[in-house]
Amino acid sequence: MPKTLRVGHIDLSFHDASAHEVESILAAHGHDIERSAAPHEEMFRRMARGEIDMLVSAWLPASHGAYLAPFEQEVTKITILYEPYCIWGVPDYVPEEAVAGVADLLKPSALDRMERLIQGINPGAGISRFSKAIVEQYGLDRAGYEFRTGTEEDCFGRYMQAVADQRWVVVPLWHPQWLHNRYRIRALVEPKGLLGRQDEATLIIRKDAEARIDPAALAALADLHLGNARVSALDDRLQVSGPPAA
């Protein structure tokens, strides 16, 4: 039985952290791992082309369902690793009576202090699509708010600097993510449902690769559930200590 498996993950740190957990189980059952990372849409295209065997992980149904749909019949869903969801958040020092929900960003008390740039991550992320819709449908753009895509460093670095300076800022984020392990971030109420609902972070494998996985490894993966808090902590550890030793 061939032992090498090609495991792909979306090129964000919390996906990397959960991929290491999956890969450690495969390695413990004798598999060699070829790991790779790519932005959201590209990673799903690679799986559709058969360039990877396993993807950690697809957020279904809301965030990544459209990327999986064209080839969903070619994959098996192994397990749900955690239950992610998207938020627009503010630092907890922003008074809730001033800004409790997205619509409050238009109140004079918010407009006096809130920064207008809402810095996101890459354009293929669900949170990026959702955030663009929020800016438009709440009329935030007419008040000068702008959602901008960028890198993880752009988004998270800007948030951390804003907190250090005690500035009012909105961060488009999700659970799980390492910032939650360090900061108290309050989610804004978003009654229009534009942030999607809670997804299921699903470990998927191409059906044509299943026979190459050790049955005991497959059973162990089927029992794997990390949960949001653990993924946030694993993600934070990755930031501090780097990837685990091979």
Indicate the topology.
Layout: E1 4-10, H1 13-28, E2 32-38, H2 40-48, E3 54-60, H3 65-68, E4 75-82, E5 85-91, H4 108-111, E6 117-119, H5 126-137, E7 146-148, H6 152-164, E8 171-175, E9 185-187, E10 200-206, H7 215-222, H8 228-241
Parallel strand pairs: 1-2, 1-3, 6-7
Antiparallel strand pairs: 3-10, 4-10, 5-8, 5-9
Helix content: 25-40%
Q: Compute the gyration radius: what is it?
A: 19 Å
Contiguous runs where pLDDT drops below 50 for at least 5 residues: none
Number of strands: 10
- How many helix segments? 8
How many domains make up the coordinates?
A: 2
Q: What CATH first level of the largest domain would be assigned?
A: Alpha Beta
End-to-end gap:
22 Å
CATH superfamily of the largest domain: Periplasmic binding protein-like II
Strand order of the largest sheet: 2-1-3-10-4
Quote the beta fraction. Answer: 15-25%
| Biggest sheet features | 5 strands, mixed
Mean pLDDT: 95
Topology order in helix (H) and strand (E) letters: EHEHEHEEHEHEHEEEHH
CATH architecture of the largest domain: 3-Layer(aba) Sandwich
Q: What's the CATH topology name of the largest domain?
A: D-Maltodextrin-Binding Protein, domain 2
Task: Name the shape in a single word.
Answer: elongated
Q: Which structural category fits the helices and strands?
A: alpha/beta
